[in-house]
Design goal:
240 residues; alpha/beta; 30% strand; globular
Length: 240
């Protein structure tokens, strides 16, 4: 199971949000590159980068910071936030991003995901944020009527590389991931699932490893690493 550190960027700085709320952000560093380098040095084999401003503005806002991360580390990164069209996806892939995450637009325009998978095979990840089992959009600020599992099933056969599944109510709260819903989603589709939201301790990693066989291939963690409640090196050791 991959342990994937998150580097979330707001106005060029590294922050973490509580439950997806931009107004509830905690500033951790003025230099997202240094944070990515820190996680790489501790053994991360993939970095999760989010353009938070882009997620809310519906277009890329922190491209320069993301380029700087790409040139500053040697491990691959996946990028999400404000990705609404094929042109943006191609732009990110052209500069060396490994995988591109389509979030809100997967709900609004599932055809974009399918087109992107055809044009960029193996490079597209769908980000599904959920609140009480329903898909959430706009950085998790709005909840739809669509069940997260139904949204995931929409992409069952189009070649999505993975689904990043975030329980918004747990995101940034350090109260443990939603094991039950993550496992249910993994069982409902054949697409690999990456868990996100709520991770706090090594026990949370152990609990996720127990559902790895259901199709949970990784976990994204942010605040727990920044607050020091989770040791990345030890988490990676447990995951193996």
């Amino acid at each position: 199971m991959l342990i994937i550190p998150a580097v979330d960027i707001k106005q060029g700085k590294c922050v973490r949000l509580l439950q997806g709320r931009m107004e509830d952000s905690t500033h951790y560093s003025d230099d997202p590159v240094k944070m990515a380098q820190k996680w790489e040095a501790q053994g991360a084999s993939l970095i999760h980068v989010v353009d938070l401003d882009g997620a809310f503005a519906k277009k890329v806002q922190n491209f320069k910071s993301i380029q700087d991360i790409l040139t500053g580390i040697n491990v691959p990164i996946q990028v999400g936030g404000g990705i609404r069209d094929l042109t943006t996806i191609e732009m990110y892939l052209d500069v060396g991003v490994s995988k591109v995450i389509i979030g809100s637009e997967a709900l609004y325009n599932p055809g974009l995901v399918k087109d992107a998978c055809r044009q960029f095979p193996g490079k597209i990840v769908v980000g599904i944020d959920a609140r009480n089992g329903r898909g959430a959009v706009e950085g998790g600020s709005r909840t739809s009527d669509t069940r997260a599992i139904d949204l995931a099933k929409e992409f069952e056969s189009c070649g999505v590389a993975a689904i990043n599944f975030t329980d918004i109510l747990k995101d940034g709260m350090q109260i443990g991931p939603n094991i039950e819903e993550t496992a249910a989603l993994a069982c409902a589709v054949s697409i690999p699932i990456v868990a996100s939201g709520g991770v706090n301790t090594l026990q949370d990693i152990k609990n996720l490893v127990e559902i790895e066989s259901k199709g949970v291939i990784g976990v994204i963690t942010g605040r727990a690493l920044y607050e020091g409640t989770l040791d990345l090196k030890e988490a990676i050791r447990i995951s193996k």
